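Build the 3D complex.
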Amino acid sequence: DAGVIQSPRHEVTEMGQEVTLRCKPISGHNSLFWYRQTMMRGLELLIYFNNNVPIDDSGMPEDRFSAKMPNASFSTLKIQPSEPRDSAVYFCASSIQGAGTEAFFGQGTRLTVV
Amino acid sequence: GESVGLHLPTLSVQEGDNSIINCAYSNSASDYFIWYKQESGKGPQFIIDIRSNMDKRQGQRVTVLLNKTVKHLSLQIAATQPGDSAVYFCAASGGGADGLTFGKGTHLIIQP
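Done.
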């Protein structure tokens, strides 16, 4: 298995632009997580899906952030409009049983908003 | 909610020595704990996990200890090697919280 696949690996965009991050979880995993990592705040859980349904989005910073999971093999995290303070590494992770089990992480997307 | 914290942001050890990385959590209802290793430019990689019905679990060169009384978790790495150099995160879940709550991380530096 190729593991969790995220794209793009790096994204540089101008403030105000829309950014879409993509994730393909490990086949057979039924839970998917989006995390954000910064030096100041560490790894923060943004949103968690179970069987393609959003379970907990309390970590999503504000309405500019949205996430979808249209099917079991694909998820997107969208920021519209983007701001410089959104600059971070965004990780997608998947697991086989949801919360309380090992989550496998992708390589991350490094987002820079200028 | 849960908060997870590491005692030291940086730990420097001699190659061949044992390393101990400590972590504290706040939610006594948390029932699953996990350690990840993150190398530069990569995503966190699973090392070892433990559930609250255990107080010790061993893997290859790694041991996790859980003290539920004081809500403390530790990762022990035996015979530390240069390849162990990375940032180590502890995380917890359960107690009604979805997903893993991560600590800030300890950067393990291996000295030759």
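Chain A touches chain B at residues 4, 33, 35, 42-45, 48, 55-56, 59, 91, 93, 98-108 (CB under 8 Å).
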